Fold each of these.
Amino acid sequence: MFILKNFSLKNKITEKFSTDEKIVLREGDTYEFLKEIPDETIKLVISSPPYNVGKIYEEKVDIKAYLKNQTRVISELVRVLKNDGSICWEIGNYIDKGEVYPLDIYYYDIFKNHNLTLRNRIIWHFGHGLHASKRFSGRYETILWFSKSDNYTFKLDDVRVPPKYPGKRHYKGPKKGQLSCNPKGKNPSDIWQIVKQDWENEVWDIPNVKSNHPEKTVHPCQFPVELVERCVLALTNENDWVFDPYSGVGSTLIAGIKNNRRVIGVDKEPEYIKITKQRIADFYLGKLKIRPLGKPVYKPTGREKIARTPREWKEKIKQKRLI
Ligand SMILES: C[S@@+](CC[C@H](N)C(=O)[O-])C[C@H]1O[C@@H](n2cnc3c(N)ncnc32)[C@H](O)[C@@H]1O
């Protein structure tokens, strides 16, 4: 499965960090790796850290112990971050015995203790997921975007999205009659609707919709390349370093390479490192399927078979009416 046919990554990927490199990928512990990175090197740290929810790659520990470990990693991340750089920390909720712990609330203080400034708390909303029975089903995660100083890079024009009503005009005032939308597009706002890799759930099994997200790998919680791309494009320039300290199967690396950034990824799982290498190779060979940035999320029209009320339900309704 991981044979790289007619393609050599040897010249492209290195394990050891050096400012001359373009792609650094390390199998190992992120805290240990961080010691090798000089101060103020990285323009963007972007990651979804382990959530301490007992996924296959993590051991669930007491929340205090989990946060203590994350605090020491974050201290190092802030040290390696450039003064005009940013950290985007994508997290969900930790759940213990039915109680929800919103991780971003805990992380906020950790970042603030380093005098970082919160620029956005982005809600990543997705339409599908596990169905809860004792609380409302969770359908969002958050991305905390912090900058290290007020001199941060933010290139809104690179990530504008098409307006909903491009033909809208000012209806009063001196600009009355003129088009009111920015022709470059609108600000994507702090609520992002990007398809989650929810192939574990039934949505991707629906015939006639789509049987798979194009980026699916074996990783249980990989994030979409397009989600990272928006941050990379808005918060960095070409050739800047983008670093994912928990890189999983390398979505951040793909998003960075695709946009001519230099990238670093670290993950402790050999299998994810292998998959990352394969995905990078596939990217260079033009074989990697990536969901394009800004592609609208599929909305059922109501005409699909699975969007109609099933026969069995209709019969039950009929029976009830007869009673
Ligand atoms: C939520 S996943 C990140 C997935 C990634 N965003 C992607 O798109 O594939 C967290 C990752 O952190 C890795 N990890 C956990 N503890 C680690 C550590 N101490 N050092 C390096 N990687 C670690 C896990 O193997 C897992 O792949």
Note: The two ends are 59 Å apart (CA to CA).
Amino acid sequence: MMTGHKCWGYGQKDGPSEWYSSYPVAQGNRQSPIDIDSKQVIFDPCLKPLRVSYELCTSLELSNNGHSVMVDFKDVDDKTVISGGPLEDPYRLKQFHFHWGTSRGCGSEHTIDGVSFPCELHLVHWNARKYRTFGEAAEAPDGLAVVGVFLETGKEHAGMNRLTDALYMVKFKGTKAPFKCFNPRSLLPSCLDYWTYPGSLTTPPLCESVTWIVLKDAIRISEKQMEKFRRLLFSTEEDERVHMVNNFRPPQPLKGRVVRASFKV
Ligand SMILES: [Zn+2]
């Protein structure tokens, strides 16, 4: 998703507080993530239910891009799309990835009333009705739609095992492994109630092109499954080993934006 080749990361010298020097939009008016303040949220009865049509085998590869672990999808047609919710068009799934911390006290990017979750899943979609390529969509204000799912630790998540059991294959930055026929529907909670607001990518280039759909209900994975994420590395096989943890950007200023909820409390 990088348009340039500037170095960025989550360390002291290249972390989120430094990103603005190469990506000035980091200080823009619709940056993500945010803290969702439940008292400021507006219930919008016009918001439609989110429809998820992830029916066929369109997943391709699992990879470690040095910032997260990602699964990418064939996005040449509308076989794996979301629609409804706050969206005017269907949006095609391009990839999903995760953000997590060193322990259960931190890791998510969005927070709810100031509280973090141990991990957050992002399913990144693009508007192929209006734009020709993912890159073109990423530059447009209504180009992308990202579904955010909080992960809590507790009981083991059966649908997550295929993924967590494959993570050892992409331990190092720049490594890939085939990952066919994985349906990410299994990673969504049964209730699809959501919050929505206009925002951005949470990693450089931080484009302000994302309609965020953050699900109210978290999914649960075991501490053992979570530990497998923390064993991944930011570093290549040749570098000094640095564990891939705390790969999250903290909440950004709301700057007058309104967060709408599809549900009443
Ligand atoms: Zn993300």
Note: The domain at 19-261 is CATH 3.10.200.10 (Carbonic Anhydrase II).
